[in-house]
Amino acid sequence: MVAVDADPAPEDSRRRWRWGRRGAAGEPADGTTQGAAGGAVVRPRAVRPAERRKGGAMSTLAEGRRIAANLRGGIGGPDAAAAARGLRRLLDADAVALGGLHDGLLWAGRPADVEAAEQLADDVLRTDARASAAATVALPVHARDELAGVLVVAGAVPASAAREAALWVGEALERARLEESAAVAEQAELRALRAEISPHFVYNSLTAIASFVESDPERSRDLMLDFAEYTRHSLARHGEYTTVAGEFRAIEAYLALARAVLGERLKVQVRIAPEILPVALPYLALQPLVENAVRHGVELPGGSGLVQVSGEADGTECVIAVEDDGPGMSPGYAAAVLAGRGSGAGLGLVNVDRRLRTVYGAGYGLVIETAEGAGTRVLLRLPRFQPGVVVA
Questions:
Q1: Staple partner for 205: which of 27, 70, 257, 324, CB 3.0–4.6 Å?
Q2: Where in the numbering of this chain does the Histidine kinase domain appear (predicted)?
């Protein structure tokens, strides 16, 4: 099968350090002076201009990062006042204000004429153009080429610096909107997974349940309970996370229904280590993998086969595998599925992969091992403990 899925210091880095060494006359080398006890006293080294510039650049970058973080809630958000204070420090201004399209100004410092400054801000929001008077300037803030608010700067601040600050605020707002859009997209993907119950499977399941009503009432009752558990888990609207145990309850219900529909065509093996059952993971991270294995590995016309599900601890991580002995697929198509370029049948896999990488980072996600005629194995690796991943 085919799987789809600080520079080191130089060897002579010690040469940067120069250690005092005594000369022939007993004086320390390299311009140091000898102390009363005979030890070498290192002469204080003057800070070079380049080092001063480096320190200033680092503090500016740190301040900019804090400003961007404070603007995540929007230009009128709960931390916007802190962002205004950071901009005031960065620009060394007498006063700085931020305001949204429908919010009042949030001031850091106080300009000489508050009323005149607020009038400038109103003019900017009305005309979407820069406005100034005396030592105060108001500039429009744009996010995604749309007016998002206003920045007011009072004091002896160069016009270019004020202009760059307005651009910086706009870019911070754009990043915040992108992050919010990513969160909305993640929720949409989860809703898509929850809505992906196959009407064909529902019909076949209910037909199988009905076929046992008279011949085997007890089995019919058990299958109805399995159907209820499967639909409850698939359509649940609460919580982003569940446990491995919770996910496997739904998987067992699904497999019981699938066996009732497919009969002897479907064989199942499930082996899960007890220590990973309490591990929290995103809702519907495993069930779509099992459904995919049954649908594309066994359920094909005239098909039959074995679906194996295994899970075990591997140090601080757990590894779960879903495998079928069906027709498999080409590695190129598997790569296209995970890249979102596959057919609609791969929607569940790509949604799970993206959600795992969003929650745990780029190092986690699905790995597909497959080849034509060799079946398919989908591997899922995730941390056993992850901050913020908690079952509500």
A1: 257
A2: 285-386
pLDDT computed for residue 305 by the predictor = 87
Q: What is the pTM for the complete model shown?
A: 0.52
What is the architecture, at CATH level 2, of domain 50-182? 2-Layer Sandwich (3.30)
Q: Which two tokens stand for residue 140?
A: 């429009």
Q: Count CB-CB contacts under 10 A for residue 6.
A: 3
What are the structural domain ranges in the chain? 50-182, 195-383
In tens, the pLDDT along 101-117 reads 877 899 999 998 999 99
Count other C-beta atoms under 10 Å from residue 365's C-beta: 20
The three-state secondary structure class of 305 is: strand
Name the residue among 352, 294, 281 with its Cα closest to residue 325.
294
Q: Tally Cβ neighbours within 10 Å of residue 141.
A: 25
User: Which amino acid belongs to residue 86?
Assistant: G
Going from the C-alpha of 75 to that of each of 101, 204, 329, the distances in angstroms are 9, 53, 50
Those residues of the chain that have pLDDT short of 70 are 1-56, 179-198, 200-201, 203, 234-239, 341-347
Domain 50-182 and domain 195-383, same fold? Reply is: no
Question: CATH topology for 195-383?
Answer: Heat Shock Protein 90 (3.30.565)
3-state SS class at 95:
strand
First to last CA, the chain: 39
